[in-house]
């Protein structure tokens, strides 16, 4: 069951042309046990940028087993070598998985991004006020 899904604020690398946003979704196991495997990238190394842009946000996979309050990496929860490349973990009813997809790197100097686009990104929730200020030089009202 998909419990939530949303774009990840500040995941697109700042740039004159901002990198595409990643997203996060939380899944809950509702029926029988599931055997899962994964082979993804960009959990540690951020997506690269070009021509003065900044790197995009990383991805992640977190697990919260039924009855537990905290999230753990696959390495912590299942003792796997990697949290982005693994096979044969067993998820049981009530367990949750939070997948976060990396964002793209920015292209060009972020300070050259059109002010109206930065304001729109801020309004839409694509970037935070801190990013608008620190990366793009915009002082939000």
Structure at a glance:
By secondary structure, the chain is α+β, with helices and mostly antiparallel strands. The chain has helices spanning 74-78, 115-124, 129-134, and strands spanning 2-7, 23-28, 34-39, 60-64, 72-73, 85-91, 96-100.
Spell out the blueprint of helices and strands:
Elements: E1 2-7, E2 23-28, E3 34-39, E4 60-64, E5 72-73, H1 74-78, E6 85-91, E7 96-100, H2 115-124, H3 129-134
Antiparallel strand pairs: 1-2, 2-7, 3-6, 4-5, 4-7
What would you note in describing this structure?
This protein is of the alpha+beta class. Helices cover 15% and strands 26% of the residues. The protein has helices at residues 74-78, 115-124, 129-134; strands at 2-7, 23-28, 34-39, 60-64, 72-73, 85-91, 96-100. The strands form 2 sheets. Strands 1-2-7-4-5 form a 5-stranded antiparallel sheet. Strands 3-6 form a two-stranded antiparallel sheet. The longest helix has 10 residues, at 115-124. The radius of gyration is 18 Å and the shape is elongated.
């Amino acid at each position: 069951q998909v419990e939530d899904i949303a774009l990840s604020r500040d995941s697109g690398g700042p740039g004159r042309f901002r990198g595409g946003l990643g997203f996060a979704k939380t899944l809950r196991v509702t029926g029988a046990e599931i055997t899962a495997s994964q082979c993804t990238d960009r959990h540690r190394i951020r997506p690269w940028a070009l021509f003065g842009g900044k790197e995009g946000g990383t991805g992640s996979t977190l697990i919260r087993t039924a009855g537990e309050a905290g999230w753990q990496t696959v390495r912590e929860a299942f003792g796997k070598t990697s949290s982005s490349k693994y096979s044969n973990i067993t998820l049981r009813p009530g367990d949750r998985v939070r997948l976060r997809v990396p964002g793209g790197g920015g292209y060009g100097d972020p300070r050259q991004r059109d002010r109206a686009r930065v304001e729109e990104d801020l309004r839409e929730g694509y970037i935070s006020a801190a990013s608008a200020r620190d990366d793009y030089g915009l002082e939000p009202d």
